[in-house]
What does this fold into?
Amino acid sequence: MLSAVSVSSGGEDDSFDSEEDLMFSDLSSEEDTLMTTEDAEHIAGSARKSVFECLDEASVSRKAEALVVQTSSLLSLSTHEAKALLRFYKWDENRLNDEWFSEEAKVRDKVGLLLEDRDKASGEGTSTSAQGAVDPSLCGICFENFPEDDMFAMECGHGFCRSCWNSYSQTAIDEGPSCLQLRCIQPSCNKLVTEDVMLSLVQDAARRDKYKQFWLRSFVEESRKLKWCTAPGCSMVLKCFDCPASDTPLDVRCDCGHLFCFTCGEETHRPATCSMREKWVIKNSAESENLNWILANSKPCPKCKRPIEKNYGCMHMTCAVCKHEFCWLCLGAWSEHGERTGGFYSCNKYKSKDKSRGADRKRRDFARASLERYMHYFERWNANKASCSKARETLDRFRGLEDLLTQVSTNTRTPMSQLAFIPEACKQVIECRKTLMWTYTYGYYNFDKEKAGNMKEFFEFLQGDAEYSLELLHNCVEVDLHKFVDAENCGDVSKGEFNEFRSKLTGLTKVTRDYFEKLVFELENGLEEIKARYGSV
Amino acid sequence: MDLSRVQKEIKEISLDKASGISVRVMGNDLTRLQGTINGPKDTVYEGGVFVVDIEIKGVYPFEPPKMRFKTKIYHPNVSSQNGAICLDILKDQWSPALTIKTALLSLQALLCSPEPNDPQDAVVAKLFLGDHPLFERTARHWTRTYATPGQETEGLTQLLEMGFTREQAQEALDGAAGDLNAAIAALLG
It folds into this structure.
């Protein structure tokens, strides 16, 4: 439903804005698409309105064709030539037009289109063929003679037999998308094999389809404003009207329901930037953090070499494995410690050691401090991630086999259509958990020691506020709801009690959404402002 | 595969005596050929005869033939270990309008003018740029040792010693794609 509407509104970019409201209101009148409406609203809330649209393959093809036709009439070229030019300029018609009108000959040469001047083209053609094959009926590839009809040449005049042209084109298609820029068989010739020539040569249906698909892929993958939906198996295309800067995340939701970041193609991660997300993920997977921990917190037993962590107590260590007794500071055997060495508890051996040990300890301290800081952010990031997937499970339980919503509906004698607020709350939890998760990444990269101070406090205040209201909401949707699910065991619930629950949950959903919008907005835009205002405090 | 084209190519090469290249068919189909290139005059390869293994795949001539030096050669663009060749027309610059002959001629031209800045064998290329006299001495030595006619077919000498005629021995070796044991089996069988 949504796709059909958005496709019909996708004819022209400027018409989209005016039709968008219509699109949403259209949907909200439909009972069965209540969920979808919510999604759309979410997007309208969390992402800027009318910044993208979702297209199916057919309408993407139509858009590509429209662009080609428009360009071909502007430059007075055939559509196939226009298509080749657009592909070369990554479907950026403005760049193409600029370069075309300033230096057409150079552009033609780069792309492999001959000059329109027919005399020159044919003159060039005959001169090269004069050097090469003297006999115009001889194919220079299979070395057979053919009647004129079986020979084929493009405007450049390099003739080869149709069968060789056919194999040449098919081999190129089999090799992959580079067939879109296939050149004439003649090695010295730069003439591009355009789409019309290619399709006249290749009769094999599978290869023709493949070739057409390469064009579509080129259009989607090379235009900056288009991206395939990243959900597995989904062939929809998202179009962004106003592309964000390279590192600025932009949340988009495909009509298939998949939500992702348009800029980097990964899961949504606002308010963290795309590069933060990438660094963070690499950091989390890197073994180096584990090694850092071992380095910072453990020493190997001097006898059995097993790593030992000292978490409390005095310096007199006893290895749990080999029972070796040693001094934690100097790693010498404890039996050698006594009055001679300055007493059990002030190991002067340690002090007398050379400076390298001091440097070693400094490194350990630094590693431990930076690790502790990382652990702080990572634990919270990870906990929210786990909560997020828990909430997803809850959402599934509303619909799936357990069908909790139906139970609630029966127990409270409320029609299903009035229960939409419950999954809506749950979706809000998922969304917020995700945002909260990435605020920790944001915090980790934005507030290291130097930049800390009141900015960090402000950030933590906003984050704490948002987190608090999310905890309330999450608790309400997961714990309070159970009263109404298990009603059979606890006896009937009063209508009033349920209404109370409804207004509490609806209220919390709204408050939480507002908090999170504020949080993301402040983090993405406001920090600079606030810095300017309070930076000197 | 376009057999008739390969046949014509072989015929054409055999007619051309001046260019210093030749081609022989190995085995009983046209997928394995053996080309020879005479070392160009006034180069360190002068006097040598270099054997090139040629493999023709089914898509030929729309994909390049596979070529490899069988004779050891000391050259920046040829692996001194396995004879692999770094030459653009044998890779992405191949065109079906090129032939085995043009490819062998390009190899001959490569022997005249090595491209040390796009090397296949980094060690050789380094020597070529860093200590050119030593490079030349080594290359000449390799040409004498490995590429002087009569020495490159160890199998042939062995078959001659066993009492077969030169013609018999060569035919058997060619039929077995150079495999000595298979050639002996064929001659005795």
In short: Chain B has a mean pLDDT of 86.
